[in-house]
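Board notes (copied after class):
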Amino acid sequence: GILTLGTVPSAKGVHRNVSLLVRGAQRKQLQVELIQVDPPELRVALGERTALNENVEQIPLHVEIPPGLPPTIRIGTDRWPFGEIVLGVKNHPNLKEVRMRVKFAIE
């Protein structure tokens, strides 16, 4: 998927929280870790996993563009590709990673 942060004033920065939902019989064994962030100036952190109900768990993902970064364009074109967050997935029979594209511009 694509996380759209929009146009961000450099002096202010921006932060967003996204929830990863984990379902299914193997959800308790599933592990998620941060593998890569592009550009590296994006601050990304996984939060504490919580149960939403007996069948679904939630893992918060915090994404921040800190204040003071230089102008940057990452809007998904050949010239200015999306940013990207790569999460590694362990203990899942089919899924080994999750890639989230990040669309933003810093002015």
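Comment from the instructor: The chain has a mean pLDDT of 95. The CA atoms of residues 50 and 58 lie 5 Å apart.
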